[in-house]
Amino acid sequence: MLRKKTEYFCAHLWEQGGRSRNQDSLALWQLTRGGRNCLFGIVCDGIGGLKEGETASGYVARQAASWFRTRGYRIKNKQKLQTAVRQLFFQLHEELKDYGEGKGIRLGTTVTFFLINNKRLFWGHAGDSRLYFFRKRSLKQLTRDDQGADGALNRAIGAGEWRGLVTGWKRIREGDRVLLCTDGFYRGFTEEEIASCLNREPVMESQAKRMLGQMGERKLAMGEKDNISALYCGLVLRKKRRRA
Hints:
Layout: E1 2-15, E2 24-33, E3 36-45, H1 53-70, H2 78-103, E4 111-117, E5 120-126, E6 130-135, E7 138-141, E8 166-171, E9 177-181, H3 183-186, H4 191-198, H5 205-221, E10 228-241
Antiparallel strand pairs: 1-10, 2-3, 3-4, 4-5, 5-8, 6-7, 6-9, 9-10
Helix pairs in contact: 1-2
């Protein structure tokens, strides 16, 4: 008898660009346990103009990944997971504010993440990093940039007042893909250009890495001054023979 096992391909890009240091942070984690194959990805972009952007983004990415790895993936109820995640990021927001006050500085970071568990995509967002969703030849931006008319962020982790976290759900199926990226990656590209470059069917991780790397090279050739970061992951269903 045949059964399907959920598997993923993943690729990442983390380029310093024209900055003196990289203030973006990424984390990617995969777990197979109890017959389930879970995937978590997060992208954080330290806020320019504030201090220690790499500290803020790195702390949030590490702490969130650790929480999902040890606790978050176990929560099956949608409402309970949403509540727990919002509490997590509120706590991280307050911890960054306390750290900044102790050093006499202001710091903060964007955050965009996804968790794929049991063919469900759960995502959360604050700031102007983005989550794109690919299905067949269709590309959709699931997040909205939290920016005012002056370009300043209305929502972030650690900076300003706590304004919550935007979250959402989506059922996924074979061939679906997600892209997490900072503004240094997507700025200057149209959605059509992103779809044209990435919305081909990768059959192995090496191909996905090459596609993402080519986009990074294009950004550098365009003279991008910001850090350039992205996570690109897709769901593949392979048939696995069950033992008699």
